[in-house]
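re: ur question from earlier - yeah i can do the single chain one, its not a big deal. heres the input i used so u can compare w yours
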Amino acid sequence: MAVAARTPPGPPPAGRRRPAAGKRRAGLPRSPRELRRENEQLHALYETALGLIHRLDQEQLLEAVLQRAARLTETAHGFIYLRDGSALEMRVGMGFFKSQIGLRVAPGEGLGGRVWQSRAPLVVDDYRSWQGRLPGKAFDELRSIVGIPLRYRAGVEGVIGLARVEAGRAFSPEEVTLLERFAGLATVALDKARLIAEARRELDERRRTEAILRQSEERYRQLLESLPDPVVVYTLKGEALYVNPAFEQTFGYRREELLGRSIAFVPEENWPETRAAIEALLSGRKVLLETRRRTREGRLLDVQLTSTLYFDEKGRPAGNIVILRDISGRKEAERRLAEYRDALEERVAARTRELALANEALARQVEDRRRAEAKLRQREKQLKAQSLHLQEVNTALRVLLKQREEDRRELGEGVLANVRELIRPYLARLKQGRLLPVQRALVDILESNLESIVSPFVSRLSGHHRGLTPTEIRVANLVREGKTNKEIAALLTISRNTVLFHRHNLRSKLGLRNTKRNLRTFLLSVEK
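and the output i got, formated as tokens:
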């Protein structure tokens, strides 16, 4: 119910409700001024409605409504409250209320709070003396003020109000009716702004969602494109929606040949297990099996197949994703490993048999060795006894050899004494006689040979160098005595070249070849 009547004189004026809109005396014609004013109001409402169509921002819509309402009621002061949680907040203000934007009131507080609480228009003729006014000297300037609720659906979302600061200019019932119409436009503006804001939010949300979906789709596409394993996306009819590059490389098909078609690469012998896998997949189970697939060239590949369903926006199965991994290399390695294992087992068995035979032979060898060791120990005992016997024999032989050496030395000393006493004096007397040169040479040779026989040099030289011939020994003896090559040749009745030949053989056999050592010096050292 709207407020209409003025506050009567007497007590402090209070808010008044206006009579029902449109009530006037029956039979009284409208004056031209009233008709002109009503036309202006209708035209203003029409222009305001047209302006609201082209405005999207909520604040601009509310400012447009408030400015036109203020212009029609010939005032410069107005405001619009909007609901913000459990309070009203002044969102738009003009004139006096421009400095009050952001003011918040609770239900029942001030004019805005009263209108919000009562859900009905309220007119105050003198705000300064009104009991429900807001405290503060700043509001003493206000005189007549009117508030209209902004109804939205089943509640009040705000309050539109106009005020005058001139005394004696109260708001008429016609002005209140006009303001109610503008309140309706403001409600439409709010509803439109809400719808536009919600549409914008939904559009922004949809754009963000679409961007996220595009990014997610691009990430998944890049992931599928970069996977090393072949991937196929099927519909429920078995038609290929997507194949990745790895599938093209592995099976030799081009993507254009497969999209929208069934891929005929299942060998006939592998269809039973493939049908069983499809049935398991449609029952909601994830499929993982090892099977075979045929390439475009007809080559069979061992593959590990993984398949899972994907769903549409309503949660219904839309198709399945199949990932194929080429395990031909692994299968070949397993086959080779099995063959190697079988061959290894055969070799182990053969080796075991060989070891058994070797163990038997070794056992026989050990037994033979034990018997041999027993014989060896017996033989060692015999050898030890023989060794003791030989030691005794050796001792006896050393004694005999020592005795023989002594006898030999005594014999040599006796021969040497006999030669000196019985032969040398006669040779000296023979040399003093008149002898031919040849005879004298023979006597010298006889004396030299006799000296060689009794000399220890010959025995030592023969003992150390058993490869010397008798002639070489005689040459060596004459070289040791300081004879020249010519003298040696005359004494031995050989040529000088033959002496040189024997001297050369002596240096070779005595180890003096290619050395600077003198042959006579070496022979003298042998005598010592």
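The radius of gyration is 72 Å. not sure if urs matches, ping me
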